[in-house]
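Subgroup meeting minutes
Present: P.N., E.W., G.H.
Scribe: E.W.

1. P.N. recapped why we're keeping a running log of single-chain structure predictions: easier to compare across weeks, and new members can see raw inputs and outputs side by side.
2. G.H. added today's entry (108 aa).
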Amino acid sequence: MARAELTTEEVLRSDIPWETYMSTKLITGTHLQLLRRYDKKSESQKASLLDDDGPSYVRVFTDILRDISKEETVEYVLALIDEMLTANPKRSGLFHKTSEDTYRPFLS
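Output recorded in log:
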């Protein structure tokens, strides 16, 4: 199957080497902690994390989109964002609260 045909669910089955990104300083230790807390968790667990500290998670996602160009990782983070917004479209407001230029990470 071509990568362009993958669904969000299929993309999210991938394993992203977050620890490698931290060891190469592409993400911070704080980013790694948040990603470990969030990644591969149930929808209800993710919803609770976003309710408690949504801006921090959105900042991690947008920082990754800004700093990492590996296609599989970008697809994965976009799938996480898609999943988050599909579950609750009102979470789009988190992007406005955490970014001076809301759309920049998506257009780079």
